[in-house]
Specification:
The complex is a heterodimer.
Chain A: E1 8-12, H1 16-24, E2 29-32, H2 50-62, E3 66-71, H3 80-93, E4 97-100, H4 103-112, E5 117-120, H5 129-139, E6 143-145, H6 152-160, E7 165-173, E8 177-182, H7 184-189, H8 193-196, E9 205-210, E10 213-218, E11 221-226, E12 242-244, E13 247-249, E14 257-259, H9 264-270, E15 274-277, H10 284-303, H11 312-319, E16 327-328
Chain B: E1 3-6, H1 15-26, E2 32-35, H2 48-60, E3 64-68, H3 76-86, E4 92-95, H4 98-104, E5 110-112, H5 121-130, E6 132-136, H6 143-151, E7 158-172, H7 176-180, E8 199-202, E9 208-213, E10 216-224, H8 229-234, E11 239-242, H9 249-260, H10 266-273, E12 281-282, H11 284-287
Parallel strand pairs in B: 1-2, 1-11, 2-3, 3-4, 4-5, 5-6, 6-7, 7-11, 10-12
Antiparallel strand pairs in B: 7-10, 8-9, 9-10
Helix pairs in contact in B: 3-4
Classes of the chains: A alpha/beta, B alpha/beta.
Chain lengths: 337, 297
C-alpha cells in the first residue's frame, strides 16, 4: 500500500497565533479569511489584515506549508469591488490559493490572475462531477471542496470522474444542509453564510432563564430550552429541539461534531487530495489539538494503512474540543441520512 | 408585459392529484408552468414521460412549459435523469444545479434557477453568456440587491422573482420526513406523500416555524409579495412565480393576475389572502430584513 497518496491536512486559522499553532503541529495548509464579509467566518475580532497575512505566509512558507485564503461569500452588485480587491490583494501578497464560490468572482480571478490557484469552496454546492467539471472548464479550478452531504461511496464516485483535486471535511462542526444552499439563518436573522459569512450570528442570540428552563433564542425564535441537568449548546438554528407532531426532538440534527478519523484509510485509498478541519472561529488551543491528532493519524495511516486503528488517545484529545461532546460520521455513513 | 409563472410542485402528491391539478392549471391564467420533481429522486408518481405528456396538454392550453431539474444531485442515476430532462427535445429546461448548467451551456437556451446563487451583475452576465434566457432571483435577495442588476440587464435576459409560497430554504442529504418517522432515507416508505403541504415543525413554544418536505426545509410562513406589485413592475421584473400549495393555488393565481392586470388591488387581494392560511405571511427577504418578517402594509 505504499502507493497510498498522502492527503494535505488543511487546518483553520482565525488569527496569526492559530496559524502558527497549525503550522507548528503539522498542518500542510492553513486557510484564513480577511477581516470583512468576503469569507464565511465573518466574526468580530477574527481574521487577517494585510500585515498579518504577510507574516502568516512567511511563517508557513518557511515551514514548507501553504496559505489558502477563503473568499467564499457571494458579493452583491454594489459591494462587488471589495471582493475584487480581496482577490487582487491575495494575488499581490502571494498566497498559495484562493477559495471561491461566486461565479462572477471565479471568472474575474481566472481572467485577471490565471497563475493564482483557484479552489471551489464548499459554498459552491458542487456535489457531483458534472458540476465540478463545469467549474474546471469555465474557471480552471484546481480543487473542489465537497459539501458534507455525500456518502463515502459517492465521494469515491466523484473522485473517479474528475481530474480536479478533491478535498473533504474531516472534522469539526457539521452542516446538515448543503453548504451554499441554506438560507435558514437569513430567514431567522437576516444574515446567512451566503451573503454575510455568518450562520446563527451571536448578535441575534438571547439567553433567558424562565420557569420552564433556560431558553436560547435567535432573533426571538425559540431554538431550545434546557432543564437544569442539561448542557446548553450554542443556538445554531438547525441544532435545536423542535416539535413535530407530538414529539419534541432534534428534528434536524443533534449538536454533534463531524469526525471521520475512522474513515481515513478509505479516504486515502480513494486518493482524496486534502482533508479539511473546520473551525476558523475556534481557539488556538483547538487548532493545535486537532491538528496534532490529525497529523498523527494521517502519518500513521500512511505508514501502515492495513493495521490502522483509531487510537483511544486521539479520541480523548478530540473529545475535549468537540461540539456537544458527540461525534458522528455524518453523511459519509449512509444510515445517517 | 409582466408574466405569471407557476413553479414546480415541491411536495409529493399522488398521481391523480397531480394530473387533476394540472388539468385545472391548464384553464388558469398563468403564462408559464414549471414541471418536474425537484426535491427527491425517490418520488416517482409521475415519470419523465408523464411530465412530458402533462407539458403537451399545457402547451395546447397556450402555456409556456419549462422542465425543472433536481436541486441536490448526488448519484449517477440522478445524473441520468438529469441528462434525459436536458435532452427531452421539446421543452426549455430550468437548471437548478451547476451540472445541469454544464449540460445546457452553449447548446440550448435555459432558465438559470433560484438555487444557483446568482447574487450580482457579473454572475447574471456570466449566465447570459452561457445561453440563459431567464434567471430566477435567489430568494434571500432583497429589492435593493436586485435594483442595480436590473439597470444593466443583458439583452434577451429575463428576471423572475418568487412572489408567493412557502420558501424552500435549505436542502440536505438527510430526509427529515423519514427522520420524523424513525425511518432511514433508503426505506422511507414515501411518508412525504402523507403531507401534501409538508410536515409542520413548531418551536417548543408552539410557533409555526418551518415545514419539513423530505430533504427540503421550507418556511412555515408563506412568502407573499403581492403588496409589492408596484415595485416589481417599476423594477422591470419580467416574471412572477407562484409556488403551488395543495389548497387555494388557483385562487392565488387569480388574485395575482388581477393585480398584474390592474383589475384588482393588492389591498383587496391581501384581505382575501388572510383567510387562506393560518401560518401567516412574510416578505422580509425582499425588504432586506430577516426573511420571516412581514412589513406593515
Amino acid at each position: 500500500m505504499s502507493s497510498t497518496l498522502k492527503p494535505d491536512l488543511v487546518c483553520p486559522a482565525g488569527n496569526l497565533p492559530a496559524l502558527k499553532a497549525a503550522i507548528d503541529h503539522g498542518a500542510d495548509c492553513v486557510y484564513i479569511g480577511f477581516r470583512d464579509g468576503t469569507n464565511a467566518r465573518n466574526f468580530a475580532g477574527l481574521n487577517f489584515d494585510a500585515n498579518a497575512t504577510r507574516e502568516g505566509i512567511r511563517y508557513a512558507h518557511a515551514a514548507g506549508a501553504k496559505v489558502l485564503v477563503a473568499l467564499n461569500t457571494y458579493p452583491k452588485t454594489d459591494n462587488w469591488q471589495r471582493w475584487q480587491d480581496a482577490v487582487d490583494m491575495s494575488a499581490a501578497l502571494g498566497v498559495d490559493a484562493i477559495i471561491l464560490a461566486d461565479l462572477g468572482l471565479l471568472q474575474y480571478a481566472a481572467e485577471k490572475h490565471p497563475q493564482l490557484r483557484r479552489h471551489l469552496s464548499v459554498q459552491g454546492s458542487a456535489t457531483h462531477y458534472e458540476a465540478i467539471n463545469f467549474y474546471q472548464e469555465q474557471f480552471g479550478i484546481s480543487r473542489a471542496v465537497l459539501p458534507r452531504v455525500l456518502s463515502l461511496a459517492q465521494v469515491e464516485h466523484v473522485q473517479k470522474h474528475t481530474s480536479v483535486e478533491i478535498e473533504v471535511f474531516g472534522f469539526g462542526s457539521l452542516c446538515v444542509m448543503v453548504e451554499g444552499r441554506c438560507a435558514l439563518s437569513a430567514y431567522v436573522t437576516g444574515e446567512s453564510p451566503n451573503t454575510c459569512g455568518v450562520c446563527s450570528p451571536a448578535k441575534a442570540v438571547q439567553w433567558q432563564k424562565t420557569n420552564s428552563g433556560l431558553e436560547s433564542r435567535l432573533n426571538g425564535v425559540l431554538i431550545d430550552r434546557y432543564a437544569d441537568h442539561e448542557n446548553a449548546a450554542y443556538p445554531t438554528l438547525c441544532k435545536g429541539r423542535f416539535k413535530v407532531g407530538d414529539e419534541t426532538y432534534y428534528a434536524i440534527e443533534e449538536p454533534a461534531s463531524l469526525n471521520t478519523l475512522a474513515l481515513l484509510p478509505e479516504l486515502m485509498r480513494m486518493g482524496i487530495s486534502a482533508i479539511k478541519i473546520e473551525g476558523r472561529q475556534r481557539s488556538t488551543a483547538y487548532v493545535a489539538q486537532v491538528t496534532r491528532v490529525w497529523r498523527q493519524a494521517i502519518d500513521t495511516c500512511q505508514r501502515a494503512p492495513d493495521s490502522y486503528v483509531v487510537q483511544g488517545a486521539w479520541m480523548t484529545e478530540l473529545n475535549k474540543v468537540a461540539e456537544g461532546q458527540q461525534h458522528t460520521l455524518g453523511a459519509y455513513h449512509r444510515p445517517w441520512k | 408585459m409582466m408574466k405569471l409563472a407557476l413553479g414546480p410542485v415541491l411536495y409529493y402528491w399522488s398521481r391523480d392529484t397531480l394530473l387533476s391539478f394540472y388539468d385545472d392549471i391548464a384553464a388558469s391564467p398563468v403564462d408559464i408552468v414549471y414541471l418536474g420533481e425537484t426535491v427527491c429522486s425517490r418520488r416517482h408518481n409521475l415519470r419523465l414521460q408523464d411530465w412530458l405528456n402533462v407539458g403537451d396538454k399545457l402547451i395546447d392550453a397556450g402555456k409556456q412549459v419549462v422542465l425543472s431539474t433536481q436541486v441536490l444531485i448526488e448519484s449517477e442515476s440522478e445524473l441520468k435523469t438529469l441528462r434525459n430532462i436536458v435532452e427531452n427535445g421539446r421543452f426549455m429546461v430550468e437548471a437548478n444545479d451547476m451540472g445541469a448548467v454544464r449540460l445546457l451551456a452553449g447548446k440550448l437556451p435555459f432558465v438559470a434557477g433560484a438555487h444557483l446563487n446568482i447574487f450580482n451583475m457579473r454572475t447574471v452576465q456570466f449566465f447570459a453568456s452561457m445561453g440563459a434566457q431567464r434567471w430566477v432571483m435567489a430568494q434571500e435577495m432583497s429589492r435593493e440587491m436586485l435594483e442595480p442588476i436590473q439597470q444593466q440587464m443583458p439583452a434577451g435576459m429575463e428576471t423572475e422573482v418568487f412572489v408567493y409560497g412557502r420558501l424552500p430554504l435549505a436542502f440536505s442529504a438527510r430526509c427529515f420526513t423519514a427522520r420524523a418517522h424513525n425511518l432511514p432515507k433508503d426505506d422511507c416508505r414515501f411518508r412525504c406523500e402523507d403531507y401534501p403541504d409538508g410536515l409542520a415543525m413548531h418551536t417548543r413554544d408552539d410557533d409555526a416555524f418551518l415545514v419539513l418536505n423530505g430533504i427540503q426545509t421550507q418556511s412555515a410562513r408563506i412568502y407573499n409579495l403581492i403588496g409589492e406589485m408596484d415595485s416589481l413592475r417599476s423594477l422591470g421584473v419580467n416574471v412572477l412565480r407562484i409556488s403551488p400549495q395543495i389548497e387555494h393555488s388557483e385562487e392565488v393565481i387569480q388574485l395575482f393576475r388581477d393585480c398584474m392586470d390592474q383589475t384588482g388591488s393588492p389591498h383587496t387581494a391581501l384581505q382575501h389572502m388572510e383567510k387562506l392560511t393560518s401560518d401567516g405571511y412574510c416578505d422580509g427577504y425582499w425588504q432586506g430584513r430577516a426573511g420571516l418578517e412581514q412589513s406593515s402594509i
